[in-house]
Amino acid sequence: MTNYCFLLRHPSRYSCIRVNTLKSSTDAVMHKLMDLVCENGLSDGINGVEIVEQNGGDQPHEQSSLVQKCPYAGLENVLFVQGSGPHVLNYNSQPDQSVKEVIVSRKCAESVLRGAQVFVPGVLACSSHVEKGDKVAVSVAVEQPVKDGGWAVGITRGTVLQGLQSDVHYEERKGLYIGQGTAAMSRSGIFRVLHGIAVEMTERVYKLPSFNDVLEGEIFLQNLPSVVAARVLDPQPGERILDMCAAPGGKTTAIGILMRDKGEVVALDRSHNKVMDILKLASEMDLNCIKAYKLDALKSVRKTEEATIVEMVNSHCEAIKTLAEDSGPCHVTVDGTATNVNEESSTTTVVQFVDDKNPEPKRYVSKAELRKNLRRMKNGPGRNNCFGGRVEKSKGFFPNSFDRVLLDAPCSALGLRPRLFAGEETLESLKTHAKYQRRMFDQAVKLVRPGGVIVYST
Ligand SMILES: C[S@@+](CC[C@H](N)C(=O)[O-])C[C@H]1O[C@@H](n2cnc3c(N)ncnc32)[C@H](O)[C@@H]1O
Q1: 323 within domain boundaries
Q2: N or C: less crowded end of the chain, CB within 10 Å?
Q3: Sign of CA dihedral 117, 122, 127, 132
Q4: What is the 262 CA–ligand 1 centroid distance (Å)?
Q5: Cα→Cα distances 147→142, 150, 154, 157, 172, Å
Q6: Is the ipTM of this complex over 0.90?
Q7: Which pLDDT tens digit goes with each residue over 271-307?
Q8: Which residue lies with its CA nearest to atom 27 of ligand 1?
Q9: Nearest to residue 294, comparing CAs of 166, 391, 381, 175?
């Protein structure tokens, strides 16, 4: 019988790559990837894989067996890069010497198994006397059950490994080696600096090419179901789409590309740094249709009564903008008057906003709102639209604001491979999770226009 948990611990046998067809073509990327795979010697050790180049294309290249086009209609922008493993490695080439070692966190190991190098933040422990250039065996620390019923890794960052059987961590890492590599810095460097490559992997138990810094903006490493989710949403150029839990922006950018960068994709995430990630990815992919905001998706629906007020503020701002464009910078007072100051000529114009149904000037516009709008007018779109570290917060959206909504609610991530550890879910935690997802779905239902589409991906 197939052991499902055992399979989850192994990486997928291929990497799935989505091509940014606004910047390149699938064929061009395919050839670049073949060269990369060739350079990295990834063809070694891949046995028994039946290869067919799908959808026609060029005659099979020597390395074409390792890079294949996705055979399914509608997914012509998807390529698969074949991996291999498990390979048996010899960690102890000099039997009289103890092996120098590095233990990495589970998340780091999962990335390494998918082709990444070992980066500094992922290192938990290291043998003493490791110097730059030393060969080190890399193993993973997986959560272990603890007395109070929870799970813990049990290794403090910076631990010195003795490399002996008497070492307290010896038993723990038996069978959990993921390869070996060359230390890119000394032990002290690894625990002193904040980022950078700690170990360059040279031999891996599972070989998959690393796509770090490769064809940036032209490709995105994405699991096939995620590519399919964006495809099923079927976004059309010119539409307004909402992606409710969007970071790092894999599906958001897939949607933007399907829309050929025409229209608007509103991407939400509750984490500031993750919104930055979305903006960075959109910029790398040259997508202008993506607007990313920090917002808790559970609060993404704005009350309809606010709509009238906002409409009024918007029309006021529009009037101010016209004024500013015509005559230069202006100041606005809270009683609804805008004073246009032409700094060069020192002329002043005063505009009074009047509600058609109520001729009395209203104090609808808050000082902060007006100051913000004025700053935007004077300084352009503002720092939020570049990567200065600030992200725009959203107050939410009015009902029926979007043609289509993608809800990629946070999930158990059980479908992600490799998964070296899966804590046990209790019935109670599953129920809480389901309730959370349901509340998000209710927001999605309100935000989509009548006849619009919601794709709920989990
Ligand atoms: C599964 S990931 C989304 C992956 C993304 N759709 C993609 O394809 O790249 C879930 C994301 O939802 C975000 N998230 C979780 N709860 C949220 C909430 N209440 N509001 C907004 N974002 C939330 C997390 O910060 C995380 O970035």
Answers
A1: yes
A2: N
A3: positive
A4: 24
A5: 16, 7, 12, 21, 17
A6: yes
A7: 999 999 999 999 999 999 999 999 999 999 998 766 6
A8: 247
A9: 391
Q: Does residue 457 sit in helix, strand or coil? A: strand
- Among 142, 139, 87, smallest CA distance to 118 is for 139
Q: 193 with 339, same domain?
A: no
Query: What count of other Cβ atoms lies within 10 Å of the Cβ of residue 229?
Result: 22
Size (the chain), residues: 458
Among candidate residues 173, 204, 235, the one where a domain is terminated: 204
Q: What are the φ and ψ backbone dihedral angles of 211, each rounded to 5 degrees?
A: -110, 20
Q: What is the pTM of this model?
A: 0.73
Centre of ligand 1 from the C-alpha of residue 315, in Å: 33
CA of 456 to the centre of ligand 1 (A): 13
- Note whether 153 and 107 are within 8 A (CB): no
Dist. CA 203–CA 90, nearest whole Å? 10
Q: Which of 268, 270, 393 to mutate to test the pocket of ligand 1 (most atoms within 8 A of CB)?
A: 270
CATH assignment at residue 111: 2.30.130.10
Which atom in ligand 1 lies closest to the alpha carbon of residue 271? 25
Tell me how far apart the alpha carbons of residues 200 and 182 are, in angstroms, rounded to a whole number: 5
Structural domain span for residue 114: 101-204
* Inside any domain, residue 415: yes
Peptide bond into 418 cis (omega under 30): yes
Count of domains observed in the chain: 4
407 with 371, same domain? no
Using the atom order of ligand 1, give the atom closest to the CA of residue 300.
20
Co-location of 132 and 188 in the same domain: yes
- Measure the CA–CA gap between 59 and 53, rounded to whole angstroms: 8
Task: Spell out which residues line ligand 1, taking CB within 6 angstroms.
Answer: 226, 245-251, 268-271, 274, 296-298, 408, 410
- Which among 245, 397, 405, 433 is the best mutation to test ligand 1's pocket, defined by most ligand atoms within 8 Å of the CB? 245
Q: What is the pLDDT of residues 393-435, one digit of tens each?
A: 999 999 999 999 999 987 655 556 676 666 666 788 788 888 9
Residues 193 and 228 in one domain: no
